[in-house]
């Protein structure tokens, strides 16, 4: 029995163009169904209009796309990069001449676009922020995008673009650009931007290559059915080196709690939809507070996922115990003497910054956590030396015995950054 509306629409589409763009817009169409509620932070709501600064920045990008100087030469390693690299000199140092697309602009210059592309991009944005489902699920829009794709294809050929860099393949613009580069017979690659919470052939499998942080992440993808030849190990673009700290800060003086993210504003896969109980983030914080109070802890900070509204969560909490953490992640970790949290990329970053991270993941007999998702490596119990508290009693035991997460847990999941392989892929 079919339970997923978007899949039903795709499979019963009136023609191939409609089917193609329902596939491309899967995530955005999901937002009309699953993106709602006070618990989702304002910035993640589909009707979010941005701050004044955001609007000015976008206007600068649009004007740059229309009137900016775009120096290029045929024969150069010209690439389109919609992935964010903290070090802006990184790609140029490898010999790449970097541009971005008006559909996923990066920075304030070197953006390729035109009036028609801007018009359709803004039409999509209006449909998402103010419109109804049928404004985006719209045959005329799909055919306009198909016509525009042929025009963009000619432009990209003129620029002699040799490769496409992305941070995910889940959004419309990523799929649209991948399709254009495939018609050009030029490679596309997704750079992992976090520790995977799901290994599925429905996610980040559309591009020609998937660039991951370490060998064990590649192994997990291969076990999920990915072609091993498409997965390349390059490290994390944020870390040119991977620090390993043997002695971690590990006291109850200043505890940070990173709860589970009980929100899902779109579906990752094409199967039966996953529905999440939003109260689990609150339940998680209640449980950790109860354990900490047994050790005489009077105060702790909490830091939910950015997609969850802090004030909504805080409305449920004991304000004499919990304090909202509004610092940058780096400052938040450095001011902590212990982090207790759910499975998260922050787990690796915390260990690299010299602070102990106790994994607390309440888990049922089927291996599912509070939000009913199956755990994936390294958080599924497959690494014997990594202790994971599945109950309040186990978390209390770990704190009482001053358990320290082994720093070598990073081995295989993170390696120093090395993008030299790109020079072999992008010719």
What does this entry show, briefly?
By secondary structure, the chain is an alpha/beta fold. The chain has helices at residues 5-11, 16-24, 26-34, 52-67, 90-93, 115-129, 133-136, 139-158, 172-183, 215-223, 280-293, 310-314, 329-334, 346-352, 392-400, 422-425; strands at 77-81, 96-101, 111-112, 161-166, 188-191, 209-212, 231-233, 255-258, 300-302, 322-324, 338-341, 357-359. The protein is 35% helix and 11% strand.
Shape: globular
Q: Number of helix segments? A: 16
The share of residues in extended strands comes to 5-15%
Average residue-wise pLDDT: 92
In whole angstroms, how far apart are the ends?
Answer: 47 Å
What structural class results from the helix and strand content?
Answer: alpha/beta
- Subunit arrangement of the protein: single chain
Query: Could you state the order of secondary-structure elements as H and E?
Result: HHHHEHEEHHHEHEEHEEHEHEHEHEHH
Rg from Cα:
23 Å
Largest sheet: 7 strands, parallel
Q: Could you name the ranges where pLDDT drops below 50 across 5 or more consecutive residues?
A: none
Helix content: 25-40%
Spatial order of strands in the largest sheet: 3-2-1-4-5-6-7
Q: Count the beta strands.
A: 12
